[in-house]
Amino acid sequence: MTLAEVALTGDLARPARLTVPDLLGWPQHQVKVAFECATSGIQHHTFAGPRLYDVLAEAGPRFDPARRKDRLRFLIALAGTDGHHVLLSWAEIDPDFAHAPVLLAVSIDDTALDRAGPQLVLPQDRCGARHISGINAIRVDGAYRYRQPEAAATA
Ligand SMILES: Nc1nc2c(c(=O)[nH]1)N[C@H]1C(S)=C(S)[C@@H](COP(=O)(O)O)O[C@H]1N2
Ligand SMILES: [Mo]
User: Which residue range forms the structural domain that includes residue 98?
Assistant: First the structure.
């Protein structure tokens, strides 16, 4: 059987390629979620897997852990094999900030995702669109720079 892989890249001290069985190496959490799709209605699923935060923390994001404000500039881009993708902020999953219990699920309704790849699970989302399946790329980006808007052009 071919195992799907997730590439962890970007501003990380320890970039990695992880399979779904690799993701069993972190503490596992189970969650029942209901989410609504604009086109197919409400869905109910049980997911299990590690927290995204735990997996990314081990990959060593390149901020100074003692300076909380540094972390506010970090973004996380997650993409599925079909190109569907989403941006999260580091602060969204960081225990010192919003601490959202976001999972990288290794199973859906007791079916292993070894071949399909992990699924992003955001238990608090009402809409299903961020529950991205077949995640194969996660990029941590600390290089985003805020640019002051140009001064309004004078007539
Ligand atoms: N990879 C991938 N994951 C995805 C999507 C997608 O297009 N690609 N659609 C999202 C949307 S809009 C919803 S509502 C949920 C549920 O989709 P399902 O009906 O395919 O289970 O999956 C999400 N995950
Ligand atoms: Mo959807």
Answer: 5-141
pLDDT-above-70 percentage for the chain: 97
Is the pLDDT confidence value at 155 over 80?
no
Quick one: three-class SS letters along the chain?
Answer: CCCCEEEEEECECCCEEEEHHHHCCCCCEEEEEEEEECCCEEEEEEEEECEHHHHHHHCCECCCCCCHHHHCCCEEEEEECCCCEEEEEHHHHCCCCCCCCCEEECEECCEECCCCCCEEECCCCCEHHHCCCCEEEEEEECCCCCCCCCCCCCC
Is position 153 within any domain?
no
Q: Does residue 147 sit within a domain?
A: no
Residue 23 has pLDDT above 90, yes or no: yes
Nearest residue by C-alpha to atom 6 in ligand 1 = 84
| pTM of this prediction exceeds 0.85 | yes
Q: Verify whether ligand 1 is closer than 6 Å to residue 9 (CB atom).
A: no
